[in-house]
Specification:
Layout lengths: L2 H6 L3 H10 L3 H13 L12 H13 L3 H13 L2 H12 L8 H11 L5 H14 L5 H6 L6 H14 L5 H10 L2 H14 L2 H10 L5 H11 L8 H7 L5 H17 L5 H13 L7 H10 L3 H14 L5 H10 L6 H12 L6 H10 L5 H14 L2 H13 L3 H13 L12
């Protein structure tokens, strides 16, 4: 069974076996990453939590490859502070399970000076979880650690703590460090989210270095604030395709991160900015997200946006992507796809939807949503064919949705409710 299948099926025992016994470092590293990503699933299975944590602790100390050790430490982070502290206790010989938070922070701060880089990594990660402001100075000093793996996790910890005082030090690293650490630093600045952190990211979004621009627009999607929208919209006009695609990804991500009290305003702002992008650099990234993303929130927002910003040039492609999403397993995504389709009438859409409704081999959910859209865009042809369809179909749900569509089209129907 592939690692992908093991991840999908939450096969903890086999993943642990790969971590402990595989001779391939990439497989061991990936097994550690997957085990970390499945942390929230372990309680739903009968597999004992300690039978995951213990092998990760062992890999964090003893694996021959430094990237595997780093991945194991990050995985322990996903299992919580107690899992990290188990590793720290075994390596340092200090039991910190039952001490006060401030004492624990003091011990972890001392761990930042340990000889073993893995202990420094774990100490930084643990300090980020504890979130005590009085350790910020220690972490800032460790941004100069000789091991890039430590610097990366120090930046992540500072982002978690969110103290504005570390912005200048992070900003310096954003310009001076290696690529992987710059990304983590940019995320930290976005998580801190103060005006000076935002201004730093905005400045970098206009840098000559393409990689820096991509890092900045990637991080700005985490802000969830309206201030980032204009910068990201400008990123859609960037000369580099990777920056343009990242900017669109971030705009969609920003919708997901937006606080509920600002969500409507941010949506309006994003639509307004995207409507001003006139060279068709908007639709294809949205279609790609809708077709390829595995993140539900991203796909929902891509479906929602596509109907509002698709130009005539991309109408066919947008319609096809939305039609393919009508049967999405996430109900909200399929609803957004149907609503967006109703905004993209034309180019034979009515005929395509009627064919879906009449195709007994199509998913019933897609047929239900197709009837909903036809109720909004259909004409005489839809009235005639749906009238015949409701007499033939054996599905109560399709019949009910058919009558609802007919009532909207001026035919004999029943009172309608959205997506009944």
């Amino acid at each position: 069974m592939s690692l992908f299948e093991l991840e999908r099926n939450a096969e903890f025992e086999e993943l642990v076996t790969h971590l402990e016994e595989s001779s391939n470092t990439d497989i061991r590293r990936r097994a550690a990453e997957i085990l970390g990503g499945l942390a929230s699933e372990v309680e739903k299975t009968r597999f004992p939590r300690e039978d995951v944590v213990d092998p990760l602790v062992e890999a964090s100390q003893d694996d021959d490859d430094e990237e595997v050790r780093a991945a194991a430490i990050d995985a322990l982070d996903q299992y919580g502070q107690d899992a990290l502290e188990k590793f720290i206790g075994e390596v340092s010989g200090q039991d910190i399970d039952n001490v006060a938070k401030w004492k624990k922070a003091k011990v972890l701060a001392q761990g930042l000076n340990a000889d073993r880089p893995e202990l420094r990594m774990a100490a930084a990660t643990g300090l980020g979880r504890i979130g005590e402001d009085n350790v910020v100075k220690h972490l800032v000093n460790q941004l100069n650690d000789p091991d890039p793996r430590v610097r990366k996790r120090v930046a992540r910890a500072l982002g978690r703590i969110g103290s504005p005082e570390c912005v200048p030090a992070l900003s310096q690293r954003l310009h001076e460090d290696r690529y992987a650490i710059r990304i983590e630093v940019a995320y930290a600045l976005a998580d801190i989210g103060t005006n000076n952190a935002l201004h730093e990211l905005v400045d970098v979004a206009e840098a000559d270095d393409e990689r820096l621009r991509r890092i900045a627009v990637d991080a700005l999607g985490r802000l969830g604030s309206i201030e980032a929208v204009e910068v990201l919209a400008e990123g859609l006009q960037d000369e580099a395709e990777v920056v343009r695609r990242t900017a669109m990804f971030s705009l969609v991500q920003l919708l997901s991160e937006a606080p509920s009290n600002a969500s409507h305003k941010i949506r309006e702002k994003i639509v307004g900015e995207l409507e001003q992008v006139t060279d068709s650099r908007v639709e294809q990234p949205l279609i790609d997200l809708l077709e390829k993303s595995t993140e539900t929130a991203q796909r929902r927002n891509a479906a929602w946006l596509l109907g509002r910003v698709a130009s005539d040039e991309y109408r066919d492609e947008a319609q096809e992507a939305l039609i393919d999403t009508l049967a999405d397993e996430d109900e909200m995504t399929s609803k957004f796809a149907a609503t967006s389709l109703s905004m993209l009438d034309g180019d034979g859409l009515e005929e395509r939807l009627l064919n879906i409704v009449e195709d007994r081999h199509r998913d019933e959910e897609a047929r239900v949503k197709a009837l909903f859209v036809l109720g909004k865009i259909g004409g005489e042809e839809s009235r005639n064919r749906i009238s015949g369809f409701v007499d033939r179909t054996e599905s109560d749900r399709l019949r009910k949705r058919g009558f609802s569509a007919l009532s909207k089209l001026g035919g004999a129907g029943a009172p309608s409710g959205d997506f009944a």
